[in-house]
Amino acid sequence: MLFHVERLAITMVAIFNGNKKKQLCGGTVIDERHVITASHCFAGKSLNPNLYTVQVGEIHLRESNPAYEVQEIKMHESYRSRYYYYDIAIIRLVKPLSSDVIPACLPGEDMVGEGDNVTVLGWGDLSYGGPNPTILQEVSGITVVGNKACNSKFKKISGIQFPRGITEDFICAGLEEGGKDACQGDSGGPLLHEYSEGHWTLVGVVSFGYMCAEPGFPGVYTKVSAYLPWITKYIGNQNEVTQEMRSRTFEHIDGRPLWRSNERVVFPD
């Protein structure tokens, strides 16, 4: 089954540094004013919102979709750049998004479990150190890996950035044989789970990995459900506009040509 990249693209944003000079990270729309991304996207960078813009629904990075101005960037208070923990951030936009955008749903606890299929999107490298595409890529057919198994795999390498191991605040996904994952440049983008036909929930945020799509090493994502209290405290209760936007399914949107990648992975910039 082919996932419809264009239909999923309407919930994804490209975050640009400067006047659309460089695509910094990906992100996911969760309501008409807020985008979830990774804190490490802004590590060591200015949080001046005037330095960033976001564009929604882009398939090709050279498209001229309207740019939305950023009002505020909220990094998690406990995030420290030398570690991979608390790697989540929220972008608040100056103006609401257009009505044709469909936010991803926020997950409930235990929304996905070991073996469940998930999909990741991004404009990251096609392989470790490889070319960087301008067309949005998707990686489908990867599965959730249990945290205990994931932790045992990452114990094989230096854990200087995750001294407590792969905790329950992460979610891991990939294939044992490798070949599919996320990669450098995908940071902040979504790990999505289709919980019912045409309805997608944001279960993870691209955080880090070992190289890209290496056998035995799944990608590691910030587990969104672990941060629901923090998210809702910042964005408040979902209003009627957001509920109406979210009630529509991705299947209601006409598609154009689709692109797919079978050999991709994720890592921080």
From TrEMBL:
<dbReference type="Pfam" id="PF00089">
    <property type="entry name" value="Trypsin"/>
</dbReference>
<dbReference type="GO" id="GO:0004252">
    <property type="term" value="F:serine-type endopeptidase activity"/>
</dbReference>
<dbReference type="GO" id="GO:0006508">
    <property type="term" value="P:proteolysis"/>
</dbReference>
<feature type="domain" description="Peptidase S1">
    <location>
        <begin position="12"/>
        <end position="236"/>
    </location>
</feature>
<dbReference type="InterPro" id="IPR033116">
    <property type="entry name" value="TRYPSIN_SER"/>
</dbReference>
<keyword id="KW-0645">Protease</keyword>
<dbReference type="InterPro" id="IPR001254">
    <property type="entry name" value="Trypsin_dom"/>
</dbReference>
<dbReference type="InterPro" id="IPR001314">
    <property type="entry name" value="Peptidase_S1A"/>
</dbReference>
<dbReference type="InterPro" id="IPR018114">
    <property type="entry name" value="TRYPSIN_HIS"/>
</dbReference>
<dbReference type="InterPro" id="IPR009003">
    <property type="entry name" value="Peptidase_S1_PA"/>
</dbReference>
<keyword id="KW-1015">Disulfide bond</keyword>
<keyword id="KW-0378">Hydrolase</keyword>
<comment type="similarity">
    <text>Belongs to the peptidase S1 family. CLIP subfamily.</text>
</comment>
<keyword id="KW-0720">Serine protease</keyword>
<protein>
    <submittedName>
        <fullName>Clotting factor B</fullName>
    </submittedName>
</protein>
<dbReference type="InterPro" id="IPR043504">
    <property type="entry name" value="Peptidase_S1_PA_chymotrypsin"/>
</dbReference>
